[in-house]
Amino acid sequence: MAKKTKSNDIRSDGREFDELREIKIQAGVLDQADGSARVDWGITMKRIAVSEKIYNKVESLREQFYIIPRGKEGRKYLIDVPAKLLEKIGGEFGDYDVVGEHFKGNVAVVAVHGPREPIPRHVADPYRAVLRFRYTMAPFSVPERKRPAPGRREIEISKVSREALQGVIFANEYPMTAIDIFAELLAADAGTRVTAITAASVALADAGIPMRDLVAAVAVGRAFGHLVADLTKFEEDAPDAVDFPMAVVPRTEEITLAQMDGRIARKDLDELVELGIKKAKEISALQRQALKEKYQRVVENEQ
Amino acid sequence: MTEEAVDANVQQEVKRWLVTPGEVITEERVKLGPGVYVQDGKVVAKVLGLAELRNGMARVVPLEGNYVPRQGDTVVGIVVDVKIPGYDVDINSPYKAFLPRDQVREPLEYGDVIVATVRFVDEVKNSVIENARKLEGGELIYIASPRVPRVIGKNASMITNIKNLTGSKVIVGANGRIWIKGGHSEIARDAIYKIEREAHTHGLTDRIAEYIRDRVSAVESERESNGEEDKEQ
Amino acid sequence: MNNEFIWEFDKDRVRRFALRGLRLDKRGPLDYRPINIETDVFANADGSAVVDLGGTKVAAGVKYELGTPFPDTPNQGAVMVDAELLPMANPTFEPGPPDENAIELARVVDRGIRESNAIDLEKLAVEPGKWVWLVFVDLRVLDDNGNLFDAASMAAITALATSKIPKIELNGDVPTIVRGDYDRRLEVAEIPLLTTFVKIGNAIFADPSADEMRAADARISVATVDDGSVTAIQKGGEGAFTKEELSLVFDRAIDRGNYLREIVRKVI
C-alpha cells in the first residue's frame, strides 16, 4: 500500500475522491439524425511556467499526481497541471505564471436513427424494435493514431453498450423496426464507454424513443489506495488500479452495465457499487437538464 | 362554469411542463393517458414531452418521434410502388401503408402525392388506407409528427387562421407531411415551421396570427409599390 | 424521418426553381451558407478543426507518426488523407469500410492540398532516407446537409495549418515521439480550398444544399490557391458540362475560393 504522507489525502488530479470530472452535455446537435447528443467529459488542465529548480523537483511529484512536464520554451519551463490540483498544491510550484489551459477528456457525438425500417430486412422482429449500437473512435481520438476500422475493443464496447440500454426501451411499441445508435468518440481519455452510453441515452430521448428512464453511466474503481469515482487515464494506469464501468437506471437503481478490470477485495465491491449508483444519479440530472435546455434555446431565440 | 369551459377560457392554467423519460408526474391515483407508465404507485413519464395533469388524467404529449399510423388519421403520402391490387404508399413512417385500387378514383403513378385516411392498422403496424385523393402541384413539407396537433390547434383554430390569412390550401397529415398550394404559400410554410419550433410554448395561436399578418402585409405593400403581378408558383 | 421518397418530390421543386435561376433557400447562385469553424477541439489530435457549413458538419484531426519514407521519395515525408462518411451523418450511409464516395472525397481533398505544394515535404524528413513524418489527416463526416467536399477541404487545411509537429527523442538509433510535447507549428505555404458547384438544368449554383445535390445533373469541385492557380478538379455525377460552363465555373471557383480563404485565415 502507498506510504501515508500528507499528500495522500489529495487525489492525483485534485478532485475529491468521489467527485466527477467536468461534464457538459448538449442535446440535438445534428440535423440529419432523429436524435443526437454531444458529451464533453474531462478536466481542465492549466499550463504553468516555472523555474528550472521547480521543474526538476516535479519528477518526484509525478508518481502520485497527474502532472505532465512539457519541456522548455524560451527561458521558461512548462508543466501541465489539473486546475483543481493547482488550487490545492499550488505552493509546490513556487512563483508560477499560468500561460494557458486546455480541456483533457472525452468528446463523444452520438446519433440515433429510428425507429426505422431495418436494413437488411431480415433482422426485423415482429414483436419489438431491434436495437443496434455502433461505437467507433476517430483515428485522432487517441495519442497514437488508430486505424479507422473498428477493432475488437470497439465491437465489445458496442455490444455491452447496446445491452446497457436495451432493457429500458419500450421496444414492443415499434415492432419490425430498427433503432440505430451511432457513437463516435472524437477525443478519448478514460471512460469512453460510459461517455458513449450517457450520450446515447440523451440522443434516444431526443429522438422521442419511449424509455422507462434515462440510463446514466460512470466508471468507479480504485487508484493509489483510494476508492474513486470517474477515473482518469493516469488513475487507470496506477499499479493498484481497478476500473469498473457501470450503467445505472437512476429511478430503480438497476445496473445494466457492469465490467471490471483489476483485482479487488469483496468488501470494497459493495462500496463501489453504491458509489456508482450515487454518481449515476448526479449524471442523470445533467442529462435531463441538457434535454430541457434544447427547448429553452428556442424560447430565447423567439423572444 | 363547466370544466370544459374553464379549460377553454384559461388554457394557460392547465399545468403543462417539460419532462424527460423517468420523471415522476404524480403519485396520485389518476387515469393514464399516452406517454406514461406506472411503477411502485407512481406515474412516470415515458418520453421527452409536455406532461399534463388534467381532469383526473395524467399524460405526456411527446415533442419528438417518428410517426406510427393510427386508425382514423388523415395522412399525406407518396406512392412508391404500383401493384395489381393497389399501391404501396410511403407515409414518412417506419411503417408502410397500402392503398387498395378501389379506394382511389384515378390510377396513380410512382411519385404521386395523395391524402387518405387510415382505415386499419395490424399488429405489426402496417396499415391500409382508404378514400384517397390525388394532390396536384403545390409543395410538400414535413415537420415532426408529434407537433402536428399544434399546427391544427384546438378546434382547428390554428390551421383555420393559417388558411384564411394566407389564402393557401393546406392539407395537414397526422404523419407530419403537409401539402400547401396557392395563396401566400411561402408564408404558410414558414408559419408552420415556426409552429414546429415553438410547439412547446404558450400563446402560440396569437403569435402565429400576428406573424402571418405582418408578413402578408409586408409582401402586399411591396407588391403595390412595385406594381408586380402575383409571382407564386 | 426525411426519407428518399420525399427527396424525389423535392428534386422536382428544386429543378422548377432552377429553371428560373432561383434557389429554394433564396440564396444567390454564388452565395455560401453560414460557416463556423472551431480549431484545437480534440486534445489528443496534433491539430484539429470542426467545420459547420450550413448544417454540414465535418471534423478533421491531424496525427503525426514516424515512418519509413516511400522508396521513390527517400527524403520526403507524406500527407495522407482518409475520410469516413459516418452512418450518423445521413440515413443512407451504411456502416462499413469507406465506399466509393468516401474514397473520392478523401482523394480529392488530398490532391487539392498536395498539388498546391502547401506543405514542404522535405522539411518533414527527420532522418533523410530512414525516418520521415507521416502526416495523417482523418476526416469524420458527422452531418450531411450537402457539399461535403468544401466542408471537408476547409476542415483538413485548417487542422493542418493549426497543427504542431511533436518533439522527438532518440532512443539509441530509433527516434520516438514524445506524445503531447510539440516542437513547432507546421508551415503551410498555401491555403488550397475546394469550391463545389452543381449544374441543375442550365443553372449553376455554388455550395449546393442537400436537395440541390440530389437534384443536380452534375457536380464539379475545383481547388484554388491565392494566386488563382487551380490545384484540383473533380467532376461528379452522370450529367455533363459544356466547355463554356466549365470556363464559368473556373472563374467562379477562384472568386469563391478567395471568399472561403478569408474565412479560414481568420481562425488559423
Task: Give the arrangement of secondary structure elements.
The complex is a heterotrimer of chains A (303), B (233) and C (268).
Chain A: E1 22-27, E2 35-50, H1 52-61, E3 68-73, E4 76-82, H2 83-89, E5 97-116, E6 130-137, H3 152-166, E7 178-187, H4 192-206, E8 216-223, E9 226-229, H5 233-236, E10 242-249, E11 254-258, H6 266-302
Parallel strand pairs in A: 6-7
Antiparallel strand pairs in A: 1-2, 2-4, 2-5, 3-4, 5-7, 8-9, 8-10, 10-11
Chain B: H1 3-9, E1 16-19, E2 24-26, E3 31-32, E4 36-39, E5 42-45, E6 49-54, E7 57-62, E8 74-82, E9 86-90, E10 97-100, E11 113-121, E12 127-135, E13 139-142, H2 148-152, H3 157-166, E14 169-172, E15 177-181, H4 185-197, H5 204-226
Parallel strand pairs in B: 3-7, 10-12
Antiparallel strand pairs in B: 1-6, 2-5, 4-5, 6-7, 8-9, 8-11, 9-10, 11-12, 13-15, 14-15
Helix pairs in contact in B: 3-5, 4-5
Chain C: H1 4-19, E1 35-39, E2 47-53, E3 56-67, E4 78-85, H2 100-114, E5 125-127, E6 131-143, H3 148-161, E7 164-171, E8 174-185, E9 193-200, E10 203-206, H4 210-215, E11 218-224, E12 230-236, H5 243-267
Parallel strand pairs in C: 4-6
Antiparallel strand pairs in C: 1-2, 2-3, 3-6, 5-6, 7-8, 9-10, 9-11, 11-12
Helix pairs in contact in C: 2-3
Describe this structure in words.
The complex is a heterotrimer of chains A (303), B (233) and C (268). Chain A is 29% helix and 32% strand. Chain A has helices at residues 52-61, 83-89, 152-166, 192-206, 233-236, 266-302, and strands spanning 22-27, 35-50, 68-73, 76-82, 97-116, 130-137, 178-187, 216-223, 226-229, 242-249, 254-258. In chain A, strand 10 and strand 11 form a beta hairpin. Chain B is built from five helices and 15 strands. Chain B has helices at residues 3-9, 148-152, 157-166, 185-197, 204-226, and strands at residues 16-19, 24-26, 31-32, 36-39, 42-45, 49-54, 57-62, 74-82, 86-90, 97-100, 113-121, 127-135, 139-142, 169-172, 177-181. In chain B, strand 9 and strand 10 form a beta hairpin. The longest helix of chain B is centred in the C-terminal third of the chain and has 23 residues, at 204-226. Chain B is flat and about 65 Å long. By secondary structure, chain C is of the alpha+beta class. Chain C has one domain (4-267): 2-Layer Sandwich (Ribosomal Protein S5, domain 2), CATH 3.30.230.70. In chain C, the strands form three sheets. In chain C, strands 1, 2, 3, 4, 5 and 6 form a six-stranded mixed β-sheet that branches. Chain C has a four-stranded antiparallel β-sheet with strand order 10-9-11-12. In chain C, helix 2 (100-114) packs across helix 3 (148-161). Chain C starts with a helix and ends with a helix. The chains are: A alpha+beta (303), B alpha+beta (233), C alpha+beta (268). The interface between A and C is large, with 41 and 39 residues.
